[in-house]
């Protein structure tokens, strides 16, 4: 039986934010999961994703960025967003000690996770997982991709749930594995669970 726990943690320069720890009975991993720019941690996409991951033994620690917690429309400054990622990783490790950690997110949340990991290693995180996003904002592919991919000393997996034909749906070449809509997600079972991303 899976359990859902509501938590809060403090972000340096951003105040206190909410989090949800969804843990299946036989969890093998914990994914620290950031939401996208336009919808928070309880959006149906995030709820469904947490449920699907729980089905393959992956617990999720979803959290709000400060702007979403404060019900503001515009995202926080990148420094606050990356500080939130780092604080969430620490809070997740405290909430579920003993579970191996992965970090990632949907769209902007994934991008901020990659930038946080590029700035300094995220304590205890063994891999990064990205859902429906590129490693760059629109029209800034070259600069952001080059900077982030040089700094990240890991390989990343990308699940493209939306925007396959969008100009922002591309990513950084050979490190990306994509899963097209309508296929079973063997990526999660083969690559992430075995830490070969």
What do these coordinates show?
The protein has 197 residues and is of the alpha/beta class. The protein has one domain (3-192): Alpha/Beta hydrolase fold, catalytic domain (Rossmann fold, 3-Layer(aba) Sandwich). It has helices spanning 44-55, 66-69, 78-95, 108-119, 141-151, 186-192, and strands at residues 3-11, 15-23, 29-34, 58-63, 101-106, 125-131, 157-159. A seven-stranded mixed β-sheet has the order 1-2-4-3-5-6-7, sandwiched between helices. The two termini are 28 Å apart.
In short, what is this structure?
The protein has 197 residues and is of the alpha/beta class.
Descriptive key words:
6 helices, 7-stranded mixed β-sheet, 197 residues, Rossmann fold, alpha/beta
| Shape annotation | globular
Radius of gyration: 15 Å
Distance between the termini: 28 Å
- Number of self-contained structural domains: 1
Instruction: Estimate percent helicity.
Output: 25-40%
CATH superfamily: Alpha/Beta hydrolase fold, catalytic domain
CATH fold type: Rossmann fold
Oligomer: single chain
Strand content: 15-25%
Report the mean per-residue pLDDT as an integer.
77
Count of alpha and pi helical runs: 6
Q: Strand arrangement, largest sheet?
A: 1-2-4-3-5-6-7
Query: Which CATH C-level class is it?
Result: Alpha Beta
């Amino acid at each position: 039986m899976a359990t859902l726990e509501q938590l809060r943690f403090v972000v340096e320069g951003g105040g206190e934010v909410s989090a949800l720890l969804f843990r299946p009975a036989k969890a093998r991993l914990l994914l620290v999961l950031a939401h996208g720019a336009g919808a928070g941690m309880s959006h149906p996409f995030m709820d469904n994703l947490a449920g699907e991951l729980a089905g393959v033994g992956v617990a999720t620690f979803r959290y709000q960025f400060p702007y979403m917690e404060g019900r503001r429309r515009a995202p926080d400054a990148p420094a606050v967003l990356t500080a939130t990622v780092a604080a969430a990783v620490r809070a997740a490790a405290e909430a579920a000690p003993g579970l191996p950690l992965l970090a990632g997110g949907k769209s902007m949340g994934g991008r901020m996770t990659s930038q946080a990991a590029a700035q300094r290693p995220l304590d205890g995180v063994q891999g990064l997982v990205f859902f429906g996003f590129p490693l760059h904002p629109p029209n800034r592919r070259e600069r952001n991709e080059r900077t982030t991919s040089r700094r990240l000393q890991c390989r990343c997996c990308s699940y493209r749930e939306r925007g396959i034909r969008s100009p922002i749906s591309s990513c950084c070449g050979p490190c990306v594995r994509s899963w097209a809509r309508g296929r079973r997600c063997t990526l999660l079972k083969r690559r992430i669970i075995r830490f070969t991303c």
